[in-house]
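Input/output pair, single chain:
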Amino acid sequence: MPQSPRQSATAGIVVAGVLLVAATAAGLWAIQKKHAIDLEATRAAYIQESHQRLLARREQVEIELGALARGLRAIARLPAVQAQGPAGAAEPETAAAIGEIFLGQQRLRPQRLLVVGTGSDAPMPYRLDAVTVLPWTAPRKAAAADCTARSDALLDERLHGQLAYLQQKHPRANAVPWSAYPAIGAQAVPDCLDPDGAGQFLWAVPVYATDGTLNGAVAVVLPSRALAAAIGAGAEDGNFALYNADHDYLVAGGTGGEASRAAGWIRQQRAAPDTIYSETMPLGLAGAARGWLVWYGRPDSDWATRPDVLGAERFRQLAQAVVIGLAVVAALALALGARRRRVLERLVAERTRELHESQAALVQSGRLEGLGTLAAGIAHEIKNPLAWTRSNLDVCVDHARTLAVLAEDWRQA
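Output:
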């Protein structure tokens, strides 16, 4: 059964509405897809940038720790130290050379340098405090007397533990190139002068005599703050951390960063799941110092506030607003078109009804006119015989009167 024009128009409006909804949904989906692609691109660039920062920071820390290890190895290879151990280190010329090497390590800022010998008959360790040659530790000098006694015992214990390790693993220098002398660390030693309780770290290299036998060790005491300054590049950057897996020693480059929140994941050497970027890299240090790792993590908020991410978000919102606005305009145009069509249909219906009424009136008028013509014709046809009859009756009456007169005259005669 064919559809009426009104049904066809309604079906067209419905199809147009469905197409409009589909086009709007497709536009919004395309915008969201592009936004996701843009975010993924910025995320990849952000992760690559973070990776490069970690590589750069690892290289910097390797340089600083490597320079410290080379300085210790240079002290360990001083002839007086090799021959006499702590006693040789105390000689004026050797002590001056040690002071110059020690003073050169200003980036890591070691707090103390120790030269210790092996055996029970070894002389007392040679000790060089930072307050002697490094002016930035002068405020510690007044309180050092009360604190030294409590920390020296732990330092000596850790240092002799390192000597025992060296005697077991590296008793002779025959197979150990001087540049690969094992540099080993120990667990952090509490520092009573540090209000944060971060502690100190002991790092040592062996001293081999001229005949290749182990003759002692040279060690530095590094405050955790010095390591934090190294990993933080001299500034507060709590997104970096330095970790020694062998001794479970963790120091962050600053406070309030991701390193403090992700300490558990750093110790597991796993990526923190709640950070957009989290990576651990081993430091390329020779010898037993290979247990050092550098970690870098960045929170989602850093990435979310980047200009390119904010720009992509603004573009998405603007594009969605444009698509929705166009859809609203199209819907309004469609609604106005439908309303105009309904108005036109009503006008056409009214005009059609008026036309039908006019046609009916014309037909009725024609019928009445025909009836009048018919009545006039009938009246005319009736009037003519009546007039003839009337006129003839008058003649007959006249003749009758004449005959009556004649008859009367005849009778009287």
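The beta strands are 112-117, 126-129, 184-185, 200-208, 214-223, 240-244, 249-252, 277-282, 292-298. The radius of gyration is 58 Å.
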